[in-house]
Amino acid sequence: MLTTPLGEIIVLLDDKKTEYTAVCHATDHRCDRLDGRFYICTEHNNDGKPHTITCFISEHTPNEKDGPEDGENLLLMSFFSGSTKLSVGAEADHGSKYDYDAIHLKNGVQFKIYPQTKTKLFVFGIAWLENCNDENEIQTWFGADPTLMYTPKSKQNIDKYIEKYKVCGDYIFKDEREFLNVLYSNQGRVEMIVWFEYCKTAEQRDSLGGGGWIDRQNPEYMWAETPIYETGFENKTLSEVLDYINHIRSEYPQRKMYPAFYLFDEK
User: Fold this and answer.
1) Comparing C-alpha atoms, which of 131, 149, 139 is closest to residue 24?
2) pLDDT tier at 93 (50, 70, 90 boundaries)?
3) Which of 242, 15, 2, 259 is nearest to 127 (CA)?
């Protein structure tokens, strides 16, 4: 169980208390003053019946400052006790983007699962600040937003895209900008980029590469692995990664250069 300054965090499946693992998540520049930042990921396989998954603070004494602080794709409740602020967040909206709903509770938040819900992973974000003031209290809002954390649900979203769109054994994509948008919007990061040249298989010896992958849709062509690579992208922004890709392509304007991505392992 996760114990916070405002009380113990309880997770219920319907009305039954369930065991969970609270994973400590690193802070970033948006929430670097936090005293605690965690996520709880619960998995639910649809059985064709409606269910609820609830995350709440046990024995919390209501405060007049308690209340919702929703954002884009974020349903969030914040709670106060003295100088401490704690927020509990869930990925949701008030429209039809998701196949489930979420609601505010007086001491937490709740997912509402329907018979047609296909989503399996439900993530709660929890963050607190023990010395909050008007200037820094927004940090729990960023810190408890599950969409700003790298969670099993994030990894699932990234893995689904990779499985569907990679063109070969390496992480090469016809539209690397779309892949990078998916990666970074799910809090993933690139660690290394290795370059491949797309060329005719029979003309590989005239390319920059040696060995590689045959294009399964057009076997006359291949991605030939070149000796060009760069590491150290894990602390770079999406814009900086794209700038690097554009720079390498500008160095070889007559060649069809494709980046292969090696992803940063959060562990």
Assistant:
1) 149
2) confident
3) 2
Q: Which amino acid is at 105?
A: L
**Residue-wise over 152-182: b if at least 16 C-beta within 10 A, else e?**
ebbbebbeebbeebbbbebbbbeebeebbeb
- For the entire predicted model, the pTM comes to 0.79
- Are the C-beta atoms of residues 103 and 112 closer than 8 Å to each other? yes
Q: Compute the mean pLDDT over every residue in the chain, rounded to the nearest whole number.
A: 95
Whether 131 shows a pLDDT value over 90: the answer reads: yes
Place of tokens 């291949």: 222
> CB–CB of 256/176 below 8 Å?
no
Task: Please report, in angstroms and rounded to a whole number, the separation of the first and last CA atoms in the chain.
Answer: 22
- In the chain, where the domains are located: 2-149, 156-263
For residue range 225-236, what is the model confidence (pLDDT) as tens digits?
999 999 999 999
